[in-house]
Protein 1
Amino acid sequence: MLRVNDIVPKISEYANTQNKVNAADFFSNHPFHLRIEEFSRRLWAPAADGSPRQTHWFYERARGQYANAQTKLTRTEALRFQTLNPKSQMFTKTDLAKYYLTFHEQPFLVCLGAQKAFAGASGHKGFVSIIAEIWAKSDTAINEVWFKNIIAQAIIFRTFNGKRLANHLRDLNYGSYKSVIVPYTLAKFIHEIDKTEFSVDYGKIWLTQRLPDSVMDNLFEIVDVIVRYFMGKQTNVSEFAKREICWQEVQALPVEIHESIKPCLCYKDKAKEEHGDAVRTQREMNKIHVLEYVFEKGEAYWWKLREWDDNRHILSPKERSILDIACKISRGIYPSDKQAKVLVEAEKRAIEEGFYVP
């Protein structure tokens, strides 16, 4: 489980929609990354391709985490780590941006490159701003279902962006534009499905850990339409693909979504219901995290905060009364989850004012 004292102090920092989103903070400090990291270490992906083992999709929140996790392991321990955390299932912040923007129908941003897709460019919000706004509105939207969905999107993206596509584009003499064809084809596929009452059943892809052949075949038909479109352009394809007008034109191209992929779809109402259940579950998890944080800090810590505030009067009467409760944990007196959240926010403000316990 994610260390509570790593995440809870940051909860209130982004809880207020009035807070200005700071991209630098998002890069290094935003609790979104900590939550995705926690999911990636805790949730087991179902065994796939006949393997008897479940595995993790390892989120490398900071550069080098995957390698660093193995530095002190014996050879046997390192091999076991690699078996449970295959390098092929490691993903980074810029990978997240690429998958999210592709499947949210913004392939022109993906074509700007990893860093610009992540941070934003050309007057468009990047992944940073989009996720920060979602988090500020309701962090519970980033939940286990969200994580499983984006892993399913990673599976689709990575499988499609494989040897079969490379060979196909080489035969069309269009191999150098693979990085454009992939996001545009997938975004077009999602765009066409979004016109219907269905959506991709990412839950099924998570459970099977594979892209169904029927979907792959349908994508390859769309590839040919996309390639013909770009071949008809008397312009630099790589540069034109970065413009929103390119995506607007691709949206209008006629393509067919086959009946054969219907088992890979679900009704939008079902997806919405699953999301709602996941939001409620995450809300309860947040309460648990805050309470655990207060308990883990311990009564002695809260007494030090109380003594510090005696001379500075930073905390409000309400915050002081909750702090008094935290100072009685050893006597079996505990704050409620709502009180714990108020206390954590008060502690954050005290730290900003100079409170420090070595």
Protein 2
Amino acid sequence: MSRITACLQALKAQGKKALIPYIVAGDPGPEFTVPLMHQLVAQGADILELGVPFSDPMAEGPVIQLAHERALKHNVSLTSVLAMVKEFRLKDQVTPIVLMGYANPVVRMGVEQLAASAAAVGLDGLLTVDMPPEEAVELNLALKAVNVDSIFLIAPTTTEARIQSIVDLATGYLYYVSLKGVTGAANLDIVSVKEKLAQIKAKTDLPVTVGFGIKDAATAAAVAKVADGVVVGSALVQALATLVESKGLGAIEPASQLIGDMRKAMDSL
């Protein structure tokens, strides 16, 4: 059993929903990432998603695009991010970590090398935004061999047939994109999210998390009522970017408080 599956099963047994913050590794500087990861766990995060910096993050809105740019100024690469995971594991062997990124760095490293490196550093899952299931078979097999989960996105426009092809390959959990558009978009419609989740869950027993449009404790709690987990990215990335100008490394704790507030709201349901 993977760390992700163990985590989600334990939460379900406790009647809790997963809180999954997303940050861009190396933003605003490499020295922030591992301390921030530990602080997010302290605030109640269950799974951590680390964005792999990329020059053309097509699924991202302005906030996260800028975070990718800041990280790339420090030459943060896929290899760098794996090293951060290894460092995090020196103090935390429990919290699952998922890398979220784009196909280009994966292809450049090679799927076999990535799988071997992922296993060596203690990575638990990989979500490759622009790699459709038809092209992910080789990567999927390599990850499965080392017990690393393959996470896939499902969008509001994904057809029934397409959902089936995705869930047939996915392990760990599914990530439902609650809105049409890029990360950081607004106008979250809980009713439509609930309807789509029912459609997905009719085809799989995998937990389904929801991201995009979750900006505060209230929206996190609303989504937690209908989903197995809540993914928050832009709001957290923006909070850190705003605070770091005046506080430097001291921005980590107050920025992470957003996750603490979401945890309290989700647990009060």
Protein 3
Amino acid sequence: MEPLKNDFFYSRLPVNEISLSDLLTEDHLFYKIPASWHVVITDVKNSTGAVHNGLHETINLIATASIVAVLNIIYKANLTVPFFFGGDGATVIIPPGYLEMVMKALQKHKENTRTNFNLDLRVGEVPVTEIYDMGHDLRVSKLRTSEFFSIPVLLGDGLMYAEKKIKGPDYMLAPMLFAEDPLDLSGMQCRWDRIKPPRNIYEVVSLLVIAPSTVNQSLSFKKVIDSIDAIYGTAQSRTPVTVENLRLKPRWPNWDLKCEQGWEI
């Protein structure tokens, strides 16, 4: 498929080389997601119970596979899109021309997840134009976090609306679309051993911060980031994931077997 001009929206966004705290104060560096795009969300149902049953890594890898399946479609067109890992699911915002291919791949991933792990993966999409029509906002910027890597930073309550709709009891699932090609999860690996928290303090803090109103949303997030920096140091100093800390672990036989037999990597 030949990409359209609008498909390059995210690929051509400027990459900001400032701190996240500073970026949140620069409203002009955030750009409105095109109304023609779509928010695609996956979510493992009853993931809390599955984690309690020792399936934490399985849940994480199912969510990761959701992202990989989408990106392997998008990258073939030399495009990039914003995506977000949620632990038990994922969110990807994509151009309209790739929606059918993406939904076919994710529905195949859904079936493989049920077959291999007896877990139900929720898959849904919401048009960005609907998000805007309902009075919600969705703007994105790019932040460079290392020499080779940048991440999307979103403002607005559009994703909250989309997630609430897809996870709601009244959400109507689209008809099943069956992909003719095998599910492409190439490039997905989990070969790194567990990494200790930084500075040997054995403390890991995970915060989910929600601003219920878009009024002063960026300032609220900035206060949280500034507090984290003051307590734990800069992002560069507190991150446990460094080249020095990465260690290969033995292959995970069960996962590799399921990938080779059922996930069709």
Protein 4
Amino acid sequence: MVNQFYVYAVDRDFGPFFLKFCSYFPYNAKLCINGHEWLKRQLELRGIGCEGLDNGILSCEEPKRAQKLCEGLSAEKIDALLRKWLRRLPHPFTAADRLAGYRYDLSILQAEFSLTQVLDRPVTGRAFFEEVICENLDIGRPSQAQLIFERRVNRRTPGQFRTRVITEGVIPSLHVDYKSSRIKQYHKEGRALRTETTINNTRDFGIGKNVRNLPALRSIGFQANRRLLDVQTVSHDCAIGEDAFDQVVRPIEVDGQRATALRFGDARTQALLNALVLFSVRTRGFNNAQLRAHLASLLGLDPADYSAGRMSYDLRRLRLHGLIERIPQTNRYQLATQGLKVAMFFSRTYARLLRPGLAEITDPLVPAGSTLRSAFNRLHSAIDQRCEDLKPAA
């Protein structure tokens, strides 16, 4: 017995779509559309040239107008598409059923919100994306998932919080899960970076399933995409200039207020900067007690041994050096954009470059054939030889 039947069609305004009908009570149905196909049709109808990239847009003659059209895809237009085709297609509800008030209503079963960023140098795009993956393998942790999805995560929050790197063929993709929703990121057709948030249950975000809630859901989806990219931008591009470096490592005076230097390599400074980059303190800002608990843990101290006054001194230093900002009319702080970059640069350079590098060239237990030690020994020999050559004759 056929219990499901599909209708595949091409609409003048929406392009290809399908309707799936269930042949038994309560006669559920599914409408599946693609917003990019709708956009392509709208551009074509208005005579605006564009080039597709699978189910995305590679290029467009009028990108700002295309964006405006995207924002015009509304719940009312989707509902009108359904009503239009229900008038043309056979379905389980007879005319008498409809007169009695039995009719289909639209709810959101799954919604996908994507951002396709076309690369101007696609040859290097794959290497760039693989580096982004390596730098963000921990982005699925609860503390970071709550930052990206802007939702509080605690022990009772259902679902798995994880990062998965999946390789289909030779194309890797990054997956970040939150409850029954996820963000997927991949290198699309070798030409673009594709970031897409798929929401499988609107109630994960406290939103009803009726299609009228599409604007609220769209806001969550696109904000999640942007927040993920913001985090990746900070981790991938964290170089700072000499002026910015001096602003942190030297004493500073702002409006008559003096602050001591945050010396690079100092144990307290490194612990302070590492505490700042913990995403759990970025969600809605942080206060003295919250940062103090993280800082004491990194220093191997009991929080009771690190006084509130001592933490206030550190907060003042961070604020005057421009790394944090006070949230108006509160006793809470938030990281400045430059502050997160500086904190990540200092902590990663110290932990990943200086400490292991110095250990490799100075630790007698490190094998003499290590790449860095061999290079350093050659440099040392060359300098010694140069000094020997320059000695004046007797």
